[in-house]
Amino acid sequence: MEEIFSNPKPMPEPRGSLAALGHKIRVTLEMIKFEHSIFALPFALVGAMLAVHGWPTWSQIFWLIVAMVAARSAAMTFNRIVDRDMDSLNPRTRMRALPAGRLSVQFAVAFTVVSCAVLVLSAWELNPLAFKLSPVALAILLLYSYAKRFTLFTHLILGFADGLSPVAAWIAMRGDVSWSAILLGAAVALWVTGFDLIYACQDVEFDRSHGIYSVPSRFGVATALYLSLFFHSGMLVLLAEVARREHLGVFAWVGLALVGMLLAYEHWLVRPKDLSRLNAAFFTVNGYISILFFITWAADLWVH
Predict the structure, then answer these.
(1) Full-model pTM
(2) CA-CA distance, 149 to 210, in Å (whole number)?
(3) What's the distance, Cα to Cα, between the start and end of the chain in Å?
(4) Would you say 112 and 78 are in contact if contact means Cβ atoms under 8 Å apart?
(5) Radius of gyration (Cα) for the chain, nearest Å?
(6) Beta bridge partners of 274
(7) Beta-carbon neighbour count of residue 19 at 10 Å?
(8) Which domains, and CATH codes, for the chain?
(9) Beta-carbon neighbour count of residue 11 at 10 Å?
């Protein structure tokens, strides 16, 4: 029985080249949780709106969304490629597409390369500085996948990678950068670091037995949750400073208060001795946070 689960047989693909390609793309999007692009995208859009203090052109919005989706797709697919052997050993992840044999490594590599090319193309369409910096962004997004093998700072490195999104959006709009963009990016970095600490709590025993670096496996679940709360508190402080610097109004401040309430609810859901609601805290609540943040801050920037 154990051999069946550790070496699952590949699922049959639909016949016909187009049908097979469509099937592989669907499996890939499922593997990288494509719908979770919503986590960082709203912050990138707010970064773009802050840069112009209003709504960018539709062309800018289109290429920005394409760039952000391509960036996340490249990063997540590459992460699955790098982690495939590790995933095959973890009961929680062994049925992912690559270790389960539902997708070939060759196709995943091709998908990553295409996603990287789309990101570079999008940056070229936005402005020259964004295009010149796109290889740097790609290097950070892809190399993150190796962090858990050698450093406890893996959570912060992921946060830093995601925190680039609003900074990159600002650069894409204006061709420069400001303290407001940097602070917004740092806020996103703290938010992602915090919820990655929560997410890592479910793999404590596996990480310890396989030498994977994470804060929960090294210092325990309780410490990781306290650190997560600290980072999320820092996120709110930084967002408040951005709102102050940019002279945002009541919508932004109300949105910030609601985000704070959702973060408090997220930490109420997950306890050191009860991780049964971890997925609700990680996926559902963080999805609401990103959407609510975008609606309130975009509305504020729109009316001003």
Answers:
(1) 0.88
(2) 10
(3) 63
(4) yes
(5) 20
(6) 271
(7) 11
(8) 17-303 (1.10.357.140)
(9) 12
Counting as low any pLDDT under 70, the low residues of the chain are 1-16, 34-38, 280-281
The count of residues in the chain is 304
Rounded distance between C-alpha atoms, residue 53 and residue 56, angstroms: 9
**Coil, helix or strand at residue 32:** coil
40: nearest Cα among 62, 66, 72: 72
| Distance of alpha carbon 108 from alpha carbon 110, whole angstroms | 5
Nearest Cα to Cα of residue 289 among 300, 281, 277, 278? 281
Tokens of 288: 């609401």
Cα distances (angstroms) measured from residue 68 to each of 36, 123, 290 = 12, 10, 15
How much is the pLDDT for 5? 34
Tokens for 273? 């001795």
pLDDT at position 15? 53
Give a three-class secondary structure readout of 114-148. Answer: HHHHHHHHHHHHHCHHHHHHHHHHHHHHHHHHHHH
Judged by DSSP in three states, 274 sits in strand
CB 304 within 8 A of CB 243: no
